[in-house]
Amino acid sequence: MASHNLPPTPTHMEQPTMNLPTSRRDFLKTSAVLAGAAAATHLALPSSVHAAGDDLIKVGLIGCGGRGCGAADQAVKAGPNIQLTAIGDVFPDHLASAQRTLKKDLGDRYAVPEKNCFTGFDAYKEVIGSGVDVVLLTTPPHFRPLHFQAAVEAGKHTFVEKPIAVDAPGVRSVLETVKKAKEKNLAVVSGLCWRYHHGKRDTFARVHEGAIGDIVAMQCTYNTGYLRCFKREKDWSDMEYQLRNWLYYTWLSGDHYVEQHIHSLDKMAWAMKDDFPEKAFGVGGRQVRTEEVYGNIFDHHAVVFEFKNGVKAFSMCRQQENTDNEIKDFLFGTKGVCDVMGHSITGANPWRHRPNKKDPDDMYQNEHNELFASIRSGKPINDGERMAKSTLMAILGRMATYTGKVITWDMAMNSKEDLSPPKYEWGSLPFPEVPRPGITKFS
Questions:
Q1: Which of 9, 118, 271, 396 is a plausible cystine mate for 88, CB 3.0–4.6 Å?
Q2: pLDDT, tens digit, for every residue of 127-186?
Q3: For 198-238, how does the pLDDT look when each residue is reduced to its tens digit (9 = 90+)?
Q4: At the fourth CATH level, which superfamily is domain 24-194+375-384?
Q5: What's the pTM value of the predicted model, to 2 decimals?
C-alpha cells in the first residue's frame, strides 16, 4: 500500500494511505460502492458451499486488540478447516502485537501472509477484499456500522462485537444492513455473549415458561472499578490519542453505559422476550474520574426503563475505584424471583441450573461454534435486529442520564445526534464536551 507523510506512532511506523471521505455521512454513502467494487473480484462463497463440512473457511479480523485476538482464536477453533487469513487495524503497532500473539496461539490455523496484513483507517476494506468468507468486527464501536455495511455488501458472514453503534444514526444503518444480510442469507452473530451461555439459556427458558409468573420488575447492576487508560505521548495527534484511549470518549465507545452495561440491559430485554422499553429516565455524572485522561464519559449512571405492560427495569452501573463491585441481575415475578447470574429461582417453583461438568460452557467459544456451524449447514444465524435494539436501549439510557430528561424509545430511534468527528484523519480533533444534565440538549 502507498503511504502519506503522517505523524508517526510511538513505534515510528509509517501510516498507510487513507483516501477517506471527510465525514461518516460521506463514508456511509460511498462504502457500499467501495464494497461492491471489492466484491466484484473477491466474492464470498455462499453459505451452502460450506455445507459439506470439508471446505476451508477463511476468516478476516478487523481490530487487533485483546478482544479481537480472542475472537480470532475462538473462530478458528470453532470447527475443522477454519483459518485466519487476513488481519487489519488502524495502528501498525497493534497489528504487529497481534501477529506475534496469533502466530503463537493459532499454530497452523494462522495463515496470514504479509500481503494480507493491513493498517490505517481503510484497513477494513482491504481485509474484506482479501478473499475471506467470514469477518470479525472488533474495532471501537463507532466504526461498527461502517464496517458491517461494507462486509455485508461484499457478501461476508460476520461476527459483530457489542455494542454495534454509539448513536441512533449508527443503529439505523445497522438495521438496514441486517435486512440486506437476511436477503443474502448471511450469518450475523452478535458479541452479546450471554445469549450463548447454556446456563443463561436454561434460566431464561424457565422464566419464559412461567416459573416466576408474570414479571413485575427487574434490577441489574454492573458496578466495577476502573478500566485501562493511556496517558498521552508527546507525538500523538488528537485523533491518535482519542483512538488509543477510546473507552473514555462517547463518540468511540458510547460511554461505559453502552460499551459495558449493554450486557446487563440485553438480559433485561431477553427477559421481556425482546419487547423493548417505551421510555427511560435517569441520573448520572462524573464524581471521581474528572481528569482529562478519562475523556468525556460519566463514571456512574442509574436509569429506570418503563415497558408498555407497566414493568420497570432498574439499572445501575459505575466505574469507580475502591468501591464495592457487583454484577447482578434479578427478575421479580408474581410467583417468585430469578437470580439470573446465579441461575436460580426462588418462590412457588424453586429451581437451580445444574451445569454439565463435561461442558465448560464457554460463551465466547459457544457463539463462534454456533456461527460456523450455521454457515456450514446453510442455515445462517442472524442476531442483527435484537443486537441493534439492545444497543439502542443502552443509548436511550445514556441519553436520559446525559440530558436529565425523560427520553422515549421513538425519540431515541429517530435521534439526529451524530457523534462522528468532522474528519477521519490524523491531526487535530476538538476535545468533546462533558455532558451536563439539564444543560445538554437532546437532539
A1: 118
A2: 999 999 999 999 999 999 999 999 999 999 999 999 999 999 999 999 999 999 999 999
A3: 999 999 999 999 999 999 999 999 999 999 999 999 999 99
A4: NAD(P)-binding Rossmann-like Domain (3.40.50.720)
A5: 0.89
Is 198-351+388-413 in CATH node 3.30.360.10?
A: yes
In the chain, how long is the greatest CA-to-CA distance?
69
Q: How far apart are CA 381 and CA 182, in angstroms?
A: 9
Write out the residue limits of the CATH 3.30.360.10 domain(s) in the chain.
198-351+388-413
